[in-house]
Amino acid sequence: MSAVPCVKLNSGALVPALAFGTATRHWQKPCAQHILAALKAGFRHIDTAELYNNQSSVGEALAQWEGGKREDIYITTKCSWGKLDKTVPNDPRAALLGALKEMNIDYVDLYLIHDPADTQPHTPTEAWAIMEQLRSEGLCKDIGVSNFGAKQLEQLSESWKVVPAVNQIELSPHCAHDPRTQAIISTCKAHNIALMPFSALTPIWVKPDEGYNPFSETPGVGYEVEARPLDLALEKIGRNKRMTESQVLLAWSWQMFGGPIATTSDKSWRMEEYIKTFDHAPLSAEELALITEVGKQKYYRRYPEQCHD
Ligand SMILES: NC(=O)c1ccc[n+]([C@@H]2O[C@H](COP(=O)([O-])OP(=O)(O)OC[C@H]3O[C@@H](n4cnc5c(N)ncnc54)[C@H](OP(=O)(O)O)[C@@H]3O)[C@@H](O)[C@H]2O)c1
């Protein structure tokens, strides 16, 4: 089986560089069989969330994974990006206890605040203090954030006792060049917070004229009829390196930002393809620069702008 490298977090913990996500393609749907297929393909990191409403699928997949142990899997989950029922207040402690019950485990490896805009009734700073407490109780090994902009990170830094281990953000060649993303990247670097990119493959599946559509369930389907800016570059590099387009983009993301990267699929052959990314020689400086430069031809962000203000 292909070996996926690990990322060392500021806590010293090692995290598999590719995470199998239970959203987007699996958004709010049971997906135990897909998680199981991902484990068989070689994924050792699962990225889920309270909001995805399918954490019990993680528990089911773990129970069905013959020969595998919970300790062999790195599990990331998040407390909520605004509950679907907005009348119920967000509560990081209740969300974590619920997640552990649904997954039938007694700790998660990484627990994130899903979105700074949706921590009410707490401020993000208050929510972070609760996260720190949960970590000290051993209910989660590490804590981090998601969708935090540079200013929001700086605000948190005024009172944090534990520096977030990661900031999970949308990061693709079509938004990496945005000044707000650049500010997040340098702020994370300054505080030794690992970037955890999601939607790294948007250049493949985004429609050339697509606007904000966070919950599109069928990325890629029917989009291939129109040319996208990175098509030629990905094809050229892929031919050179004998890699698929997805592998080229995952390699770009890994080499540029250091992962861990959250991706997903509902096809076992594609899960295997993602894992095999790391079997190939690294992209050259010229290949990385080509993707970076061509990516600037389009600005696209799938998730709300305010996440990065
Ligand atoms: N923290 C947050 O706010 C947040 C937001 C979004 C996502 N996430 C996490 O990140 C995970 C991944 O997000 P994402 O789905 O946006 O990631 P992505 O890696 O950009 O996209 C994955 C999709 O790309 C499609 N794909 C891959 N190669 C393709 C090709 N050659 N042609 C056509 N389609 C191709 C796959 O389609 P198939 O399924 O058909 O293989 C798959 O559904 C989520 O599940 C979630 O865990 C977090």
From TrEMBL:
PROSITE patterns attached to this UniProt entry: ALDOKETO_REDUCTASE_1 (PS00798), ALDOKETO_REDUCTASE_2 (PS00062)
Site (Lowers pKa of active site Tyr): K78
Pfam families in alphabetical order: Aldo_ket_red
Keywords: NADP, Oxidoreductase
Sequence positions that bind substrate: H114
Annotated active site: Y52 (proton donor)
Protein family: Belongs to the aldo/keto reductase family.
Name of this chain's protein: NADP-dependent oxidoreductase domain-containing protein
Species: Kwoniella heveanensis BCC8398
